[in-house]
Amino acid sequence: MTELAAECDVLVIGAGAAGLSAAYEAAADGNRVVVIDANARPGGQYHRRGVKDPPYFPAGTTDAQRWANIATYMGWQAYAADLDGDLVVVRLRGDERHRNDLHAVSTRVLVVATGAVDRQLAIPGWQRPGVMAGGGAQSLIKGSGVLPGRRTLVTGTGPFLLAVTAAIVQAGGEVAAVIEANQPRRLIRHAAQLMPTGLMKSGEALKFAAILARHRIPYLTGHRVTEIHGAEDDAAVASAVVHRVDEQWRPIEGSARTFEVDCVTLGFGFTAQLDLLMQLDCEAVQSADGGLAVCVDDNQMTSVPRVLAAGETTGVGGVDLAAVEGRIAGIQACHLLRTDGQRTQPDSKVMTGLYRRRGHLRRFAKALALSFPTPTAWVAEQTGDTMVCRCEEVSLTTVLEARDDLGATDARAIKLLTRAGMGWCQGRMCSYTVEGLCPGPTSVASQKAAANRPIGVPIPLGAVAKQGRA
Amino acid sequence: MSDPLCTVVIDGRPVQVSPGMSVAAAMMSTGLRAWRTTRHGQAPRGLFCGIGACFDCLVMLNGEPNVRACLVTVEPGDAITTQGGATND
Amino acid sequence: MPSGQNYDAIVIGAGVVGACCAHYLAEAGLCVGVVDRGSVAAGTTGAGEGNILVSDKEPGAELDLALLSQRLWTELIDVIGSACELEAKGGIAVGYDPSTFEHLQQFAAKQRDSGVIATEVTGGDLLALEPHLNPEVAGAIYYPQDMQTQPMLAAAHLIARGVRVGRITLHTNTDVVGIRQGDGGAVTGVETARETLWAPIVVNAAGTWGGQIAAMAGVEVPILPRRGFILVTEPLPTTVHRKVYSAQYVANVASDEASLQTAAVVEGTESGTILIGASRERVGFDRTRDWSIVSTLAAQALQLFPVLEKVALMRTYGGFRPYCPDHMPVIGPDARVPGLLHACGHEGAGVGLAAATGHVIAQSVMGQTTSIDLQPFAAERFGALHV
What we know:
The complex is a heterotrimer. By secondary structure, chain A is α/β, with parallel strands linked by helices. Chain A has 3 domains: 7-117 and 271-343, 3-Layer(bba) Sandwich (FAD/NAD(P)-binding domain), CATH 3.50.50; 120-267, FAD/NAD(P)-binding domain (3-Layer(bba) Sandwich), CATH 3.50.50; 377-439, BFD-like [2Fe-2S]-binding domain (Arc Repressor Mutant, subunit A). Chain A has 14 helices and 22 strands. In chain A, the strands form 6 sheets. In chain A, strands 1, 2, 3, 4, 5, 6 and 19 form a 7-stranded mixed beta sheet that branches. The radius of gyration of chain A is 22 Å and the shape is globular. Chain B is mainly β. Chain B contains 1 helix and 7 strands. Chain B has one helix spanning 23-29; strands spanning 6-10, 13-17, 36-37, 44-45, 58-61, 64-68, 79-81. In chain B, the strands form 2 sheets. In chain B, strands 2-1-7-5-6 form a 5-stranded mixed beta sheet, with helices on one face. In chain B, strands 3-4 form a two-stranded antiparallel sheet. The longest helix of chain B is centred in the first third of the chain and has 7 residues, at 23-29. The relative contact order of chain B is 0.26. In chain C, strand 19 and strand 20 (340-344) form a beta hairpin.
């Protein structure tokens, strides 16, 4: 693989809209900027590109001189970040073909723009082949041009269901129906906050509406997928049962209907990827969608000096917000790197515009989150053999026993007693379910504990051992 | 104009796939939906999160076990093998 | 009658030591309240490896306690069943070169006099016990009495059983803020953030926080944290069959050094992951990670098991062993405060010593002669020592 720099002025983790926007601004003063990303091509989840697609650049980032100062390394995954005096050391592992390649980069400023993954909830049958995260299905289509199935049921909550649907039908696939667990009347409650940005985004909504109409795809609101079936135990998806649900997503008796499909996508919002930020012990809060988000100030600075965050890590808000936050973070990175004599305030007119736009987009994101909440009380009421932890194959019965009979009062204790969250994915798939199964409201401390992964990606022991000798 | 395809070997069977697609996509394009079994239930698993977070899509690539099929791009001649249990010895 | 709940005894700490104390007190017929500031097994118990060892202990009071505990643990399996993953897997202490092997042999000879079963193994016999062990090591001592358990499950099931039969009441997420004392300083209960819990007997099984609990009763028990890290690999088919460690480990366990010490301890678990320890350092309650420790532990584990070279490290976890200056736990009644008993300061041996600790605490509370003389474990042994 390409030889990486050992040090730089600004290290950006994530080559999506937030990361590349940050990198472009950070390179303004001739700073040495390094961008790393686990994927093969830049773009992140939203702007994911296929091998034949033109490469992704954020809108308006046209200055070739700036890009010349930015080194982008694809296929590297950051697994740890630590402070070292005035520097931040980020440890990287090579891609799946180069897992023994370990590298450390010391940077003066770190920008974490690691995005989010689909948030999941355990449902009977969700471990069957043919069930996919909505974002995963979209990635498969955008990145590789392959459909997730012949006939797909798109389920979960939020406007993202429509984006998944559009991706599938535009690639020539069939969508049996879109199953939205929330009721659109919730949108009306938050109409005031949705208005200014909503108008701007209405074009996108109209496009989705046209796709649903043209392909005669039913859009069932207030419905949830309740069971996913296959021909036999463990077999791939053959059908899915959908119920009408109440506001707490409890199924209404007698409302079951079955869809014959070979693919079901699930998506209940997103979970920010905070591994590096939690390793650095950045302060975090619960955002409107119930997920954990890192705290940032007006200039995207976290509670840890020289560590900035942008995009979904600061609260799930979509690609436009990510790009604006990335720009502000990049500008701030430049500002931090100027010595006192050279220090000038960033162009106030530009900043005011960026702040205002970010404010609009954040209010819009919050209103969307409140319009599409994800209640969890119903999870415990499902059949006991529902698999909560996919990696360690821990059933709902086991988790409830730990809670009710063994004295586990939080997600960490459930993990220690049941192994839910101890497997390959380190709780990335089941933590929202487990938190939902714990008594009482989820605390930030519990969410931080769940998001604290000392090693972000598995690294071979042999490579770790050699690192000490270097 | 059709794209030039490349050949990879999936469980001993040569298959033509498009260069640039992920190993997971390559397998799905041949109709495979699962390529790993779990350690306890021996249950089949394939692509789930699709972006490297869930580790469900682990596969043996050129003799190396536990490779995330969603994160790696196919290369001509790749030997891709389904894997079972905890890992392959 | 004052308000609040009444118990015959209150155990502070729902870790494995507290759970064993509560279990044996309940078995003796007492009504026991267990209070923990967090969840069950959330402290050092939840950060350990689950070792029940006799092999790493020098002849003396602690080894006698360990041997008693080892017997009691095998009985406890009948009480709580297979849920706690108790495994009589045996331990192997490895000497890389002839001189360390000789040192191990001398150590084992002394242990045998105290009732430890210790067998010298070399060459093919050693590889038969542990097929993937580095074949170049000079020799090893095999300790068949060493066992492993999943300590969180063991603690939780012991308490749950007492709750089921109506002998134990569990108060989780309950901070103890004071010890109630009556005439002559005798304990009458504990003050929690929520309510007062009354009992004439209070057992301090608060692990690393045992010193603070003692202070609430006006006495000093010098318990300090000794930080440790454990590495966890990806799940594998059984590769390491027993608890395998290098000779250096025994020296480190007994060491007074404040600075970092590491010695390879490698063991498989029922879940398929391999645990790699063990580091020891005295840095207070600092949780900051040091990557050089991770590297060193990995290198030392590979020296024992070169086969793990390509195996992936999945996570690390850390915790704080509660230790006393003389590396002996504090067990038994505190002569200075009637009704107060201590069961803490077990350092890295808490899981192993828990069963015997609970057993002798219950004997002591019931006025029976204890199976082991508790004098060497008395809290007053530190005299006027100030922390």
